[in-house]
Each structure stands twice: as C-alpha cells, then as structure tokens.
Amino acid sequence: MSDEKKRDYYEVLGVEKSASADDIKKAYRKKALQYHPDRNPGDKEAEAKFKECNEAYEVLSNDEKRSRYDQYGFAGVDPNFNPNAGFGGGFGGFGDAFSGFGDIFGDLFGGGSRRSPNGPRQGENVGARLELTFEEAAFGAEKEVPVTRIEACAKCSGTGSAAGSAPETCPTCRGTGSVRTTQNFMGMTMQSTTACPKCGGTGKIIKDPCPTCRGKGKVRRSTKIRVQIPAGVDDGQTVRVRGEGCAGSNGGPSGDLLVEVSIRSHPFFQRDGANVLCELPITFTQAALGAELEVPTLDGKVRYTIPEGTQTGTVFRLRGKGIPFVHSKTRGDQLVTVVVETPTKLSREQKELLRRFGESTRDAGVQPKNARFFEKLKQYFDK
Questions:
Q1: Which of 32, 172, 188, 367 is 20 to 30 Å apart from 327, CA to CA?
Q2: What is the pTM of this model?
C-alpha cells in the first residue's frame, strides 16, 4: 500500500495522538480481535484491516518509531529513512513531489544530504503464523516456524559473481552508484544526481554471473526458524525475531521475522487476559452438604473444599493459577464457576425421598429466598 493510500496510524487504532502506551495496546487488542482472520474467514476486507492494525501497532508501540512517525509521517518509519534528506514524509505527498528538487537545490547551493543509491539497505520483514496449544501459550515454548525468505546466495557469498571472478567497478559511475545529470529549471541550468543507468545504482558490474543466483547475489529459500515463544503470549499477538527476515542489500542488516500467534481452544479452560476461567459441575448433594473436590488447573489437579449451601453460579478464585504475565514471574488467577447439576433420572424411592425433603425444608422454613419469591408472586397476581 502506498503512503498516499495509507490511513493515519492513530486513526487506524482509533486513539488520539496523546494516547498512552496502555491506551494504544488496549485499542490494538480490541481491533485485532474484531478483524482477526479466524473470526472473519474469507473476509478480505477484515484481513486487510487486521494487517493495517498490526502495522500501526508495530510503529506506535515502539517509542523511537512513534517519535519519528509523529515528526516525519510514514517516511519516518521507512527502513531507508534519512532525516536530513530534505522534505520528509511528515508532509504526506509533498515528499515525492519535491524529491527531484531536493537534489537540484542540494547541488546548486551545496546543502542537503542524499542517500547513496548503493548504500546499505535493510532487508524486508517476513511474516508467519503459528498455532499454539493453550498450555504452550501459557508457559511458553520453542517452536520451529517454516518461512520463505530472501537470503544471500551461498554459492557466491552474495557477490553475484561466478567462482573465480569478482564484481568490477562500474566505469560509468566509478563505483559511486550515481551520476550527475543536467536539468533546466526556470531558465537556469542545474545539475542533479541520479542512479547510474549502467549498474542500476550498485556501483558494480557483474560480467560473469553466478549460475545459482544469476548475478543477483540473493536467492529465495524455504527454511525453518526456531522461535522462542514467551510465556503468557495471547491470541493475535506478534512475536518479533530480529534478523531472521530477508537479507539486506549492500551490507545492510536483515529484516525481522514477525510471527503471529493463534491459540487453539481448550476443552476445559477459557482465557480472560491473565486469568483462566472454567466451570465445575457438582451434584445437588455436594452443593447442599459441601464436599472436598478435585479441580483441574494448568498445573494439574488441586483439592478445594466446597462449603455447605453452595449455589450454582458461585465463583471461587484460585490465586496464582492463571496465565503468567509476559516477561514476568507473576501469574493471574483461575476463576472457577460452580454449576449444580439437577438429576434427570430418579427411581421411585429417590423421588419419594426428595418429596419428603422438600416438605421438610418448607415446613422448617430453611428456604427463605424461595418463600419470599412465592409470596411476592402471590401478591402480584392477587392485585
């Protein structure tokens, strides 16, 4: 997507420019969940918005990148950004409109600073998706992630030349990668600097190209990268592995590998931030009399005593049995919701016992909530 068609990153996440880091994180998580491909299968518009949110969050969650973006716009977060290169991206489309004049004025008045066409350039980032189990996301894991990326050609060590030969200095630009051209501007003759047409701005000529990469010095290769997933990672988050993206050019650094995480559903547990949620079915007898029960947790079973008279919907908390916070030893809690199961198949004897029990509790007045409810109901219909 060109810079002219991009939406402002703050607008993408729906936050003000003065938003705090926490506000930006909350807004991103909300948007990412809304447009996540798993929730919108086959929806290309949602997929595009999901990628747009990731791109915006990658910049705004990084203090250095956010500062450059606030000052220079999209150009400020470009890998090849040079803050001294004349008009910046902070002026939107004007950067491209005046880029040629920047060279002219720089040559004419001796000012300005231009990036060399054959200078170091960082490689592109590579994206991948990784599905984790609930437990792997909670406690972290080392996983192999298959990726396809651009790498330096192993045959020629990235030179682009066949064995026994080497790149030669371009005779046109003498290795600078740029040439001066003359232009007429408002009746004046001026000089500007452009990429050398002979070598394409590389400053080198490949006379005997490598048969593997055909003189490009790079090849596309599929490989597997071992990625350490931190404990506590959440669904839709991205794990960055620096330097594992595409190879850079002219000695520039490699890009990064961006691994988007998705988490499989669990048969017992659900997640709410760092807390784990689950339901615990108990019998009517256990609810009435209380009982010591085994409760499943991420760490295995633990014993918990249900007090007498426990009602369905009661929630009790197991502290420290939740999800670890990322890069922290602190964990959330496990919230267990009690579900009292009503028996569906009873023998005659059991039914009779329950009838007697119901009569005894009514006569003894041990169900005050029940009594008050039916009293209110009677008063309502007797109006």
A1: 32
A2: 0.58
